[in-house]
Amino acid sequence: MSDKTIIEGLEALRAAVGRKLGHSDWKTLTDADISRFAEATGDFQWIHLDRERCARESPFGVPVAHGYYTVSRIAGLFFEVLEVRGFSLVLNYGLNKVRFPAPLKSGARYRLALELKELKDLPKGVEALMIATIEIEGEPKPACVAEGLYRYMLA
Fold it and tell me: What is the pLDDT of residues 14-52, one digit of tens each?
């Protein structure tokens, strides 16, 4: 089990700039995960769902997660990695650059790694630029690297 990073207040958040904040526990991607995402989005492309066709025609040999599934896992795993205290509200403000360097294959184990890249002052808080990386166990390239913006607001 990973250790959650806990940051207490604005000054501690400022001190964390440039630091790797940790990673989530490893998760295993299942065909059921991929199918549920296909149902939610309406994206039923064969490369995600047809195991037999993937074995015959896909360069990956097995179904792969949708890129948007992979990026969506950032939100689900974020609070497993990091807890920032002393703010009245935390807002996911969006994403800047997002890339999918490697496919996340069915059966693979993956986890989220976070790094606090920079902080910008706002009138009632700060905006944090986090580098979120979905790592794949045993693979040299990650499944996703995204610049996430989070706003930490003071009361």
Answer: 999 999 999 999 999 999 999 999 999 999 999 999 999
